[in-house]
Amino acid sequence: MKKALVIFSGGQDSTTCLFWALEKFDYVEAVTFDYGQRHKAEIECAVAIAKDLGVKHHILDMSLLSQLAPNSLTRNDIAVDEKIPDGASVPNSYVEGRNMLFLTFAAVLAKVNGINNLVTGVCETDFSGYPDCRDMFIKSLNVTLNLAMDYNFVIHTPLMWLTKAQTWEMADKMGKLEYVRENTLTCYNGIKGDGCGHCPACTLRRNGLKEYLGS
Ligand code: ZN
Predict the structure, then answer these.
(1) How much distance in Å is there from the Cα of 190 to the middle of ligand 1?
(2) Which residues lie across from 56 on neighbouring strands?
(3) What spacing in Å lies between the alpha carbon of 103 and ligand 1's midpoint?
């Protein structure tokens, strides 16, 4: 039986990946990381979607992440950058090493549960500039995890080379566009569905949807 663990935040990308995994694998579980997100709504969204889809859902406490690297996603006193500031390579919503840590912890959880496929919605095409979302890093970590745990992990990144418009298209082809649009939370200001409309995540999501729908 082919089993997969999806790294799942309750956002557009990881929810699309969850639907993708449900089509591709015989058995799917999801894991969400609680790292002190400002908006508990993110975790509530993830819980609701996993329950809705009948997927076993793990929530792991990763609060140490905000201790290690204070950032605008966990700290109320840091406003989320609307764009990348002059002289910076990433916006302040970037959490140093976050995807590396999430994938590593997910791999441990997966192996303990007899699962060797990991699915993550990371993407190189959205120009976020996060180094641990790049294809090169994912391939490198895959090798490292296999060596670290003497296990045959396969990290799947179905969105790696897709634009946001193509991610919407993927959801649509699975018949899930409306579901993803209404039930996921991507917005940095914690508003479900179409979001606040002006944070970087909302802008990316809205522009992608407009492009896909051709309006
Ligand atoms: Zn927003």
Answers:
(1) 7
(2) 29
(3) 25
Task: Look up residue 42 and give its two tokens.
Answer: 């993110």
Residue 70 to residue 6: CA distance in whole angstroms: 26
Position 145 scores a pLDDT of 98
Nearest to 45 by CA among 14, 20, 22, 6: 14
Q: Name every residue whose Cβ is closer than 8 Å to that of residue 155 and which is 6 or more positions away in sequence.
A: 103, 118, 119, 120, 138, 141, 142, 145
pLDDT score at 51:
98
Q: Are 89 and 52 in contact (CB under 8 A)?
A: no
Tens-digit pLDDT profile for residues 151-205: 999 999 999 999 999 999 999 999 999 999 999 999 988 899 999 999 888 998 9
Query: Rounded to whole angstroms, how far apart are CA atoms 88 and 25?
Result: 40
201 CA distance to ligand 1 centroid (A)?
Answer: 6
Taking Cα atoms as reference points, which of 167, 185, 186, 188 lies closest to residue 177?
167
Instruction: Specify the long-range contacts of residues 95-99, CB closer than 8 Å, at least 24 apart.
Output: 95/35, 95/65, 95/69, 95/71, 96/68, 96/69, 96/71, 97/68, 97/69, 97/132, 98/35, 98/65, 98/69, 98/130, 98/132, 99/130, 99/132, 99/133, 99/137
Residue-level length of the chain: 215
pLDDT at 40: 83
Report the amino acid identity of residue 208: G
